[in-house]
Amino acid sequence: MPRKVFDGVDYDDGYDDDYDYDDLDDADYYGKAQPSEPVKETIKRGTWSCPICTYDNDESMTACDICGVFRNPLPHMNNNHDKKTATAKTSDSSSAKTQWSKTNNVEDNNHVKDGVLRLQANNKASASSSISKESIPSMESSSKLSTGNEQLGDQVSGASSRRNRMGEGTPSVEEIRPQSHNRGMSKSDLPSKSRAPYKPEKWMLPEKEGSDLNQLNLAIVGHVDSGKSTLSGRLLHLLGRISQKQMHKYEKEAKIQGKGSFAYAWALDESPEERERGITMTVGVAYFDTKNYHVVVLDSPGHKDFIPNMISGATQADAAILVIDASIGSFEAGVDPTKGQTREHAQLIRSFGVDQLIVAINKMDVVEYSKERYDTIKQKLGAFLRLCGFKDLSVLWIPLSAMENQNLVSASSDARLRSWYQGPHLLDAIDSLQPPTRDISKPVVMPVCDVVKSQSTGQVSAIGKLASGALRSGSKVLVMPSGDVGTVRSLERDSRPCTVARAGDNVSVVLHGVEETNIMSGDVLCHPEFPVPTAKHVELKVLVLDGSAPIVIGSQLEFHVHHAKEAARVVKIISLLDPKTGKASKKTPRCLVAKQSAILEVVLNGSVCAEEYSNCKALGRVSLRSLGRTVAVGVITRLIED
Amino acid sequence: MKIVRRDLVRDGPGSVKMVPVDSDDLWFAYNLIAPGDSVMAVTVRKVLREAASGGRDAERVKLKLEIKVEAVDYDKVGTVLRIRGKNVLENEHVKIGAFHTLEIELQRPFVLRKGVWDSLALDVLHQASDPGASADLAVVLMQEGLAHILLVGRSMTTTRARIETSIPRKHGPAIAGYDSALNKFFENVLQAFLKHIDFSVVRCAVIASPGFTKFHRHLLLEAERRQLRPIIENKSRIILVHTSSGYKHSLREVLDAPNVMNMIKDTKAAQEVRALKDFFDMLSNDPDRACYGPKHVEVAHERLAIQTLLITDDLFRNADVETRKKYVNLVESVKGSGGTAHIFSSMHISGEQLAQLTGIAAVLRFPLPDLEDIEM
Fold first, then answer.
1. Ordered structural domains, chain B, with CATH
2. Which of B166, B172, B243 minimises the CB distance to A520?
3. Long-range contacts made by residues B31-35, C-beta under 8 angstroms, separation at least 24?
4. CA A110, CA A122: separation in Å to the nearest integer?
5. Are A445 and A526 in contact (CB under 8 A)?
6. A556/B contact by beta carbon, under 8 A
C-alpha cells in the first residue's frame, strides 16, 4: 500500500537504506564496505589474487607473475592461522570484483605503511588458496570486521577490514594498535583486536523455539501526568506481580501523604523524592509476563527536565506505549509544540528505531468514554505520528482507563465503551507486537544503564540491556572506556538469577574484578577481544526537529548516545541533505534550521563509547539537546581520530 | 584600575601611568598592551657580577626597565600578565637590546607608552578606570552528579571548581546507596562553595539546576547545623534559578533569568548575553538579516547594512596592525552610521560562543539574501 502522506523524513528507514545499498557505489561512504546481508560469492577456484598488483595468478604459481611477490614467503607463519584464514575468505562477500581489487590496492598502501608487507601478502595468499566451507555464518565475520574498522579508526576502513581478516593470529596483530582515546588508558594497554572472526558459542544460541518466551522491552512514554506510572502499576497488580498486601501498603502510605490517587504509581516510583513530588524522575523497571513475551516495562519520566533520563530508558526499548491524557485541556497541553512532551517523546522514540507503537488513550473515564473525543485525539495525533515516520499499520490505538481498570487486561465492562469500541485490550495489543530481531551472533555489547554497589556484599553490578551477543557466569568482560577487565560472577534478571543472558535481555550483571570507580553509567561492557571504540570527535547525520533554535558552528549542545551524555560543540557543518533523496544538496551551509537534515561534526568534552550506526545500532543513535529541548536526532556516520 | 597620570593625544602617541587593582584590571591591561608599545615598570633582574676572586656572582637587583613589547602573555590560571620584549632604556645593569620579561603585578604602577591611542584603546582605558560596581556573580551550576562553581566578573568568567561524581540510580534495595552518594556529593559542593565564594566580593550567589536538586535546602540546613556565619548572614543573597542542565554553557540561561538579570543589568556581561541572544533570534526568524564571518560582515558593511555589530576582543589582540586598524575602522564607522557595536570579552561565556562562531557577527538593518552565495 503506497504511503499517502509523506511530509517528513523517516528517521530509521532512511538510514537503513543508505547503509544497505550505497556502500558499493558511493566512494564517499566508507566504513560500510560490509553489506549486512552475506552475499555468498563464489571465488574463482584455481586462481589466487596477488595482493600487490591484483593479478589473478594460476594456482600452480608460487610467486606473482607480474610483480614477483611470493605467495607464501614465510612457511612457519602458515601453521597457526591456516584454518582461520579459510573462514575469513568466504566472507569476502561483496559482489563486485572491483570492490575486491579496490580494497586490495588500498590495502597495499596500508601494508607499506605498516611495514608488514610480506606477512599480509602471505596471509591473504594462503587464505585464497584454502577455500573451505564456512563454519560460521558470514554475518559475524562481517560484523566483526566492522568493529575491527573502528578499532583502527582508519580512514580507509574498508581496506583495513580486509587486512584484519587476513592477519589473523599473526604477529602483525600486535603491531596494529587501535588508536582509541580512552579514559585512563594508553594505547599499549588496550588488548589488541583479535582477527579471528567472532564465533558465538553453542550456549549463546537460543534453544528450540517455544521453550522460552521472547523478551520485549516496552517503554512507556507520554506527557507529564498522563498516567504512565499508574498504568504500569495497574498492569503489574492485575497480572499478579504485586501482591494484594503490597498494594494495600502502598494505598495506605499514599493516603497518609495525601496522594491517594498515586497509589498505583508508587509501585514504580520508589524513591521518597518521587513519591513526595508525585512524579517519576528516573526510569522505573518492572517485569511481567504475557502470553508471548517476557515484558520489561521501562516507565519513563514525563517531565521536561528529566528527558535525559527518558532517553536513557528509551534506548533500550523495542516497542513503546505512548500514554495520552484524554481529559479536556490536558491533551491540548500535551501536544503543544513548545511546552508539551507528547511530541518530543514520540520523535525521540522514533529516532531510537522503535517502529511499533501503542497509543493508550488514558483517563477515558473523565470524558465519559466519548467516541468523539477519542476520534479527535486519534485524528490529530495520527497526523503527527505519520509525520514522525510511524507507519499507520504499526500504530495501535487503545482507549482505556487505568484508574477504573477498563480495557487493560480484559475487554471493558463499561457499557459506554463497549458500545463503540470492539478492538483489542491493552494486553492483547502487547501480545500482537512483532518480536524484535536480536543480534545474538555478534560479540557481546552491553551499554551500562546503572551501576549499583551493594552495601552488604560490596559487589559491583552493572544493569543494562544487552545490545548484542550473550553472557553467562564466568565470561570475561571488558569495561570501556576505562579498560578494566572483569569476570561475570552472576546474572540476575527480574530479581531472579539466570544462567545465560542473550541479546535483548535486560539484566543485572554482578562483576568481579572491576573497581567501582572504573565503571559508570554510560560505559559499555564488551568482549575483551572485540573492544568497543571510544571517540571524542564524531561525524553525525542528523535531522533537526522543529521548534528549536538554529544550529550554527560553535553551538554548544548536549550529546546523548545510549546512556552516556557529554557536553559537545559543533565544529563543522559539512552539508545539507535533501530530505527526499538523501544526497548532499548544499555544502557548508551557514546554519541549520528546523526540519533540515544535514551532516555535521561535533567535538565532545570527554570521550564516549560509540560506534557507527551501521556497525551497532544501539551505540550509534544520538540525540542533541540544548536549552531543555531536543534539538536534533541522528546517527553516527563516522568516528574521527584526532 | 587607578590611572595616575594620563598624557596622550587622541589617535596619536602618548603614555599613561596606571596601577592595576584586581585581576579584572590585568585583563584590561592585556587588551591594551600590544606588540610595538613600550612598558616601563619596576622589576627584578638577575645580574651577573664578577667578584674579586674571579668567580661570578648572581645578584637580584631591583631596577626600573622600559621594554619594547614583543609578546604579551596572559596566564588565566595564575592570573599573571607577562610581557616580553627588548630593553630600550639605558641602564647600568642591563644593556639596550637585551631581552627581559616583565611581570605586571597588582598594586604596582607601570607606564604604558603607545604609538597610537585609537578609539578602542581609549574605550578600554575608560572602562578600566570606571569605578562602577563589578558584576561579580557567583554561580553554582548543578545537575545530579556534576557541579561547576563559576565567578562571573566584570570582564571575565572564571571556573573556580568542578565536581563530578557518579550517582547510582535507585533500583529497589539500592536506594540507600543513592542517598548516601548524593549526600557526599552535596558535601563536596558545599565545601567548594565555602572555599571559593567570598560574600564580601560577590554581589550574590546563584544556585542553578534543572528539575530540582535539593542543594539549597541542604545548604541552609548544614549552615544552621554547623553555624557557618558567611552563609547564614547572606541567606538573602542566594537566589535559585532553573536551567536545563549543569554543563557550563547553561550559564547563558542563568544570565538570562529575570531575577538575575535585574541584579546585573547594568553590567557588560548582561548586555553581551542579550546582544547575542538577539542575534540568534534573528538568525532563526529571518536568517537573511543576520550574518557572521569576516567576509560576510565586510560585504554587509559596504552596503551600510549593519545595525548591530558583535565582535570579540580576541580579534583585536591577535591581529597585526593592518587588520587591527581595519577592525577599529569598522567599529567606528558602524557607530558613526547610527548602529551599535558590542565588543565581547572572550573570557565570558557569550564571548566564547561568539569566538566559536568566527568571532564577528552582525544584525542587519535590511535583509541581504545574496550573502548566502558568497563563500565564507
1. 2-129 (2.30.30.870), 137-264 (3.30.420.60), 268-364 (3.30.1330.30)
2. B166
3. B31/B124, B31/B313, B31/B316, B31/B317, B32/B112, B32/B114, B32/B121, B32/B124, B32/B125, B32/B128, B33/B69, B33/B72, B33/B81, B33/B83, B33/B112, B34/B69, B34/B72, B34/B114, B34/B317, B34/B324, B35/B69, B35/B70, B35/B71, B35/B72
4. 15
5. yes
6. yes
DSSP lists the bridge partners of residue A303 as: none
Pairing of strands A395-399, A357-362: parallel
Query: How many CB atoms sit inside 10 A of residue A512's CB?
Result: 13
Note whether residue A15 is domain-resident: no
CB-CB under 8 Å, B174 with A454: yes
Nearest to A463 among B171, B178, B243 (CB): B171
Chain-chain contact of B168 with A590 (C-beta, under 8 angstroms): no
A521 part of contact set with chain B, CB < 8 Å = yes
Helices (H) and strands (E) in chain B, counts: 12, 16
CA dihedral sign of residues A475, A479, A485, A489: negative
Rg (CA), chain A: 26
Rg (CA), chain B: 25
CB A467 within 8 A of CB A496: no
> Residue B19 CB: number of other CB atoms within 10 A?
14
| Interface contact flag, B357 A453, Cβ < 8 Å | no
Q: Within 10 Å of residue A117's Cβ, how many Cβ atoms?
A: 17
B283–A285: do the CB atoms touch at under 8 Å? no
Q: How far apart are CA A594 and CA B181, in angstroms?
A: 40
Interchain contact, A451 vs B166, CB within 8 Å: yes
Q: Give CA–CA dist A598/A589, Å, rounded.
A: 9
Residues in chain A, overall count: 642
Grouped pLDDT means (10 residues each) for chain B, 376 residues: 84 86 80 84 78 72 85 78 86 82 84 85 79 70 85 78 76 65 86 82 82 75 84 82 82 80 72 84 82 85 87 78 83 86 82 84 86 68
Which residues of chain B are within 8 Å of residue A450 when distances are taken between CB atoms? Answer: 168-169, 171
Q: How many CA atoms within 13 Å lie on the side-chain side of A629?
A: 17
Show the domain range for A400. 214-432
> CA A95 to CA A92: how far, in whole Å?
8
Contact A594, A548 (CB under 8 A): yes
Q: pLDDT tens, A7-56?
A: 444 444 444 433 333 333 333 333 333 343 444 444 445 677 777 777 77
Asked if the structure places residue A20 within a domain, the reply is no
Q: Which three three-digit cell numbers place residue B77?
A: 590560571
Domain boundary among A432, A453, A471: A432
Give the residues across from A566 on adjacent strands.
A559
- Asked if residue A205 is part of any domain, the answer here is no
Nearest to A370 by CA among A333, A326, A409: A326
Q: Are A472 and A507 in contact (CB under 8 A)?
A: no
Q: Is A270 on the interface with B (CB under 8 A)?
A: yes
CATH number reported for the structural domain that contains residue A580 in this entry: 2.40.30.10
Q: Which of B243, B287, B354 sits opposite A591 (nearest CB)?
A: B287
Q: What is the ipTM of this complex?
A: 0.70
Instruction: Please tell me whether residues A580 and A635 are part of one structural domain.
Output: yes
Please report whether residue A632 resides in a domain.
yes
